[in-house]
Amino acid sequence: MAAHVLPFEKPIVELMARIREMREITRLTSQGRSFDTELKRLEEKMARLAREIFSDLTAWQKVQLSRHPNRPHTLDYIETLFTDFQELHGDRRFGDDAAIVGGLARFDGASIVVVGHQKGRGTKANVKRNFGMAHPEGYRKAERLYAMADKFGLPIITFIDTSGAYPGIGAEERGQSEAIGSCLAAMARARVPIVATIIGEGGSGGALALALANCVNVLEFGTYSVISPEGCASILWKENGVAADAAQHLKMTAPDLLRLKVVDSVIDEPVGGAHHDRKAAADLVGAAIRKAMAKLAGLSGEALVEQRYKRFRALGVVKE
Amino acid sequence: MSSQWASPKVTADASKKKSVGKGVFRKCDKCGATMPAEVFEANFEVCPECDQHHKLSAKRWRELLLDEGKLERWDEALVPCDPLEFTDGKRYTDRVAAAQKATGASEAIETGCGAINGEPVAYGAFLFAFMGGSMGSVVGEKIARLFERATEKRLPVVLLQSSGGARMQEGILSLMQMAKTVAALEKLRAAGIPFFSIMLHPTTGGVAASIAFLGDINIAEPGALIGFAGPRVIETTLRQKLPEGFQRSEFLMTHGMVDQIVSRLELRERLTVLLRHLSRR
Ligand SMILES: [Zn+2]
Prior knowledge:
The complex is a heterodimer of chains A (about 325) and B (about 280). Helix content of chain A is about 50%, strand content about 15%. Chain A is an alpha/beta fold and about 325 residues long. In chain A, helix 6 (about 135-150) packs parallel to helix 8 (about 175-190). The relative contact order of chain A is 0.12. Chain B is α/β, with parallel strands linked by helices and about 280 residues long. Chain B is globular, with a radius of gyration of 18 Å. Chains A and B meet through helix 7, helix 8, helix 9, helix 10 and helix 14 of A and strand 4, helix 5, helix 6, helix 7 and strand 10 of B. The structure holds zinc ion (ZN). Zinc ion binds near residues 28, 47 and 49 of chain B.
């Protein structure tokens, strides 16, 4: 886990390592009592330090956290939150895109359809997952799973974590635009509850294709943007060095998204970020999904479609 | 507010060289043939020599497609705000003001109703000259209302698209317009009313990846650049040159993404036949 440490996380990660070390010594020597006070003091110090550092992060630092290689990904959440997960592969057209995973699972005992972007951990896994950047096959798999959910009356739970849809020759040949557009349409018409959670990066149309939901939540250090800060900087400023500025201007962090009503709520992350305690992060995400599902539980299929329509219909600012 | 924009003398997409007058000559972008400007003008900016389709102004599109060139406009009073207080050296509000001044239009799309050879339609046309035809809150709102009104009045929708994609200066809110417009189009679809998606040069990004390919009939202009990612982005990602004709209309036809490639000069007649096929009368 310590292999990837962002510069601003360093003091926290170092303290965490010392705490872990002391716990280990305590366990091995059964000299617990003598360390108790010191451990407690260190833990308090770490929590204080983390709060301090993380309360004052820049947009760019949050972008880096949202992309943190140790962050929990979709399959981590599926493993912790669901039971009886059955992954379903393929788009029935061309292939199976590992950058998007999906299938059937149980949440609190009830069957649901789950779809999420999947990034890899490590080079080999990332090549397989194409860094979470889906081809048309990924979106067509998602689309057919949405249709299945609609057919069998199963709620849809999605996890968003992608820098964007893949920009490549094959992707264009096989209709990346059409695949994303059709995915959006399938979500718009599904007569079942849809709850989306932005767990990391929410990059552009490739993210939106999993996010046309009745309720959209974002993790504290998740981001959601029309374009990456790097892409925005290179187009508007014609250079690459100002991505940090672009991140600030794009208003892509969780508090901004909440203020713009693009998300319904922000899910707090464990001390130091979701990657420091995946289990705790999953529990927090699970609680938020549970709450959203409870709110939508009484609505008919038509009412769900209408609620979703009104939700997105209201987004945007115009003068008349 | 609407009166200042409602003026029909908009020549939004006209390129600078299009100052028509006696003795003004124009050169085709593709074959280089030089002809009096009024020859291009009369041929709706299609080169008589090589069929190259040059940009056509919103006004000329109306004259080309709609009976008597008449469009009863909808929602002309809608103007953009600056929800992100966005600046990239120049303030977004200044960019909007400059685009309004240069084009005489209120935003990057005009919508309304008219008729094509007597067939009533709801009509929309992007103005590429207005900030690259980018889709922000106003464009999204006007398209949503276009679909909603068309559903209510049971009018087929003909939408001419020409857009670089989402408007970056409105950030995440412009991404949300993709969801909004597709959801509104779903209402039209559920009512069994046809949508004719006409893709002009260029149709990329957030407009391509939302409603553009969801037409009951997808029509592309010859030689138009149409795709999800811009060629520059793909070249940078792959670090390789793209094949000749990549993402052009003919490429899309080969890959099964559009129903027809139709010359601008035949579009009105073609739409008439298609409209009558799908109008359930
Ligand atoms: Zn020519």
